[in-house]
Amino acid sequence: MKRVTIILAILLVPVQHALYSQSAQQHESIHQLDFERFKDFTRTAPPFEAEAGPPVVLKTRTAGPSREIFGYFPYWVYSNYPNLNYDLLTTVAYFGAEINEFGNIVNLRDWPAAGLINKAHSEGVRVVLTTILFNPTQIASLLSDASRRTNLVNNLLIQVQNAGADGVTIDFEGVPGSQKQNLTSFMTELSEAFHSAISGSFVTIFTPAVDWSNAFDYLALSQVTDGLVMQGYDYHWSSGPTAGPVAPLTGDRWGFFSVSWTVTDYLGKTFRNTSKLMLAVPYYGFDWPTVDDGLESSTRDRGNSIFYSEAYPNAMQYGRLWDAESQTPWYKYNAGGWQQGWYDDSLSLAKKYEMVNAEDLKGIAIWALSYDGQRQELQGALSDAFGATAAPLKPVAFRVKNVGDGGVEVAGRPSAGATSYRIYRSTDGENFGSGVVFPGAISTLTNLSTDSTYYFKMAAVNGNGESNFTEVLTVLPTNNSAVDILIVNGFDRTVGTVNTFDFVKRVAPSIERTGRTFDSCSNESVINGETFMRNYSVVVWISGEEGTADESFSNAEQALIADYLEHGGNLFVSGSEIGYDLVERGTSSDKGFYRNYLKAQYIRDKVATHAAAGISGGLFTGIGNLAFDDGTHGTYNVDFPDGIKPIDGSIQNMVYSGFDAATFGGAGVEFDGEFAGNTMPGRVIYLGFPFETLYPASTRDAVMQRALDFLDRLPTSVADRNPAKTVPGDFQLAQNYPNPFNPATTISFILTNLSPVRAQLKVFNVLGQEVVTLLDEVKAAGNYAVVWDGRTHDGLAAPSGIYLYRLQVGNRAQMRKMTLVK
């Protein structure tokens, strides 16, 4: 018989301070808030969903987490199911199907989720259906009527069995105290029915942090079920009177109740039945408008719930603070009034996991999977606490670059716990084969054809298995290491979109057909200093539908792009949420970057069309009938294309078909000139929809040809186009010696130019900020050596760390890394 999991989740949210009355607790929990927020969301299945095939039997697992890790997976993030780290999960709960007081299912929210079930089963992970009811009166009507309870049990059995899934989780809000015995009876009936019908079924119940209504018999429930999932969040809530920690571990400042209190309460009431207790933890936070910037500040209005993927960059931008009382992070900022954001990160969650291990609890639950986006910190905390028998995390900061003579470096940052790395290679971006194992995270592949584009992805490996894949990147090998173009994959978003992390395969062929060479990297590689944009004459930045939750452009990215453009760089960026993120939801510095470097004026978040056309006077003159994807042409539905206008010297180059650009904004702008008063002119093209969603391929080719000719300063007239470019003489930049060094090091290089040429040698920190200029002169061919004494441009000693030195000769550049130690 097939093993089935049943989890009953019943939420009541605790008080913020002990003095608040019980009636103050009848507010929406985060489960209900997020459900209401995404209630009208239309789920979009990934392109590969149609290939789900027949049901896959749940695989027997040989390695995995050391404790139960249960994760809610809302329907509004469904397209991200292929990217979940199943190595660090035991149960996935699809959220959710709505029921009524009669025990009938009124909205399945696209269940059954065949792709999710088959993927999870192939990884040895259970899938359960979350069933929700958020009306206390209807809950009472359901629980108090035995025939209605039986009807619900039977309906759930049918849905689970027909889907080939493993159980059901029920999420009720506001169970009345009068239903305490009926709740126990229902859980008994539910457990017995499923245990009898399906051998090995697993029944749990999600219970509140504080039982204000006295509706839960913890001892009885722990005996009739296979476990209790203890709510460990919502100690401060959206409409609360003060801002504060969502999940305080400890701390008298924040009142009587905390996560530690909740766990202690359950241990006492269940007589330390630790094998039945799981702690639910938050992957979200709240951002409140507050009266001032102090702790325990009163709120001015409701707070907005934020995913961890949004809270983390906010904290990096405004300054991460640590509250020692609650053992959680927070941040504050002034945006026409004070705001405070409170959330949990890898450090605060790790402390909660320590308590789970110390008390020998059954495990944890998560609200909600994918709320960390593509960030790795929270998975790292899970792995450290419970992943001793799990596969490693996937590599980050992935990049692929030419090293010359048909050689390519494929690299990522080392993954904790990895013993080797598997590199997968393809010539079409789809068929990758079985891959080849390499001992380190940085490997060089040789003897590649300089006539073919290659695609790569990487996974980390150890004795327990293999990690998730990185995104797919691409490269066109060369005979020398000089490369024209860098493709940056900046599309990390997974919530509210379809992201297959392989959209370079719709960008690279169009570049290749222009006769240009290219490397590619993740945006994290740029931020971390592993890839230096100034080594390339053109940067093509894929932003996709990257928005507020994952940041279209972070502060660090903005600084690096500004530096690139100020030094004569040429940027082609496209995306449908950039204006919304940076202007409508952005800070003053975000708005400044949008205006000063993207050279655009944001008009609106959505122009209701999937068609555009070039206009007279712009570089896309004569290119009409530009169609971008509505979700049926191989990528994703671009449902919110930004309407934008030119500003400060830029011009409109593309409009949305049938929409007046003066009113709705256009589809693209271009700029040629100086940025921030720098004397080296640069160029930028910015489209308000994603380039990769254009179809067919011939359309992408036409747009890319014009864009690169413009950015490379070639004539944009089709009749006058000449692909030949003037390239300065070659040069070689050597590795500094000694390295690491203290206090000085020598940097040598060779120039082979036929006539004198301007050479610049500069040192940068890993954020791309200039530290010192060592050389800026016109030089003839020859051998040169320059000494850096470890000081900045103002004569101060530079701190220890990793630095980048870059030699630019004409419009070409090379860069290497060095380490200063103290």
Q: Would you summarize the structure shown here?
A:
The protein is of the alpha/beta class and 822 residues long. The chain contains 17 helices and 42 strands.
Key traits:
globular; 17 helices; 13-stranded mixed sheet; alpha/beta; nine-stranded parallel β-barrel; 30% strand; 822 residues; 42 strands; 21% helix
Write the layout of secondary structure elements.
Blueprint: E1 5-11, H1 30-37, E2 68-74, E3 91-99, E4 105-107, H2 114-122, E5 126-133, H3 136-143, H4 146-163, E6 167-173, H5 180-197, E7 202-207, H6 218-224, E8 228-230, H7 259-269, E9 277-282, E10 284-289, E11 304-307, H8 308-318, E12 321-323, E13 328-334, E14 338-343, H9 346-358, E15 363-367, H10 377-386, E16 396-404, E17 407-413, E18 420-426, E19 436-438, E20 442-445, E21 454-462, E22 465-466, E23 473-475, E24 485-489, H11 508-512, E25 518-522, H12 523-527, E26 538-544, H13 555-566, E27 570-575, H14 578-584, H15 588-596, E28 600-604, E29 611-614, E30 626-628, E31 643-646, E32 651-656, H16 661-664, E33 668-673, E34 682-687, E35 694-695, H17 697-711, E36 731-733, E37 745-751, E38 757-765, E39 770-779, E40 782-788, E41 801-809, E42 812-820
Parallel strand pairs: 1-6, 1-7, 2-3, 2-15, 3-5, 5-6, 7-8, 8-9, 9-15, 24-25, 24-26, 26-27, 27-34
Antiparallel strand pairs: 3-4, 10-11, 10-14, 12-13, 13-14, 16-17, 16-25, 17-20, 18-19, 18-21, 21-22, 21-23, 28-31, 29-30, 29-32, 30-35, 32-33, 33-34, 36-37, 37-40, 38-39, 38-41, 41-42
Helix pairs in contact: 4-5, 9-10
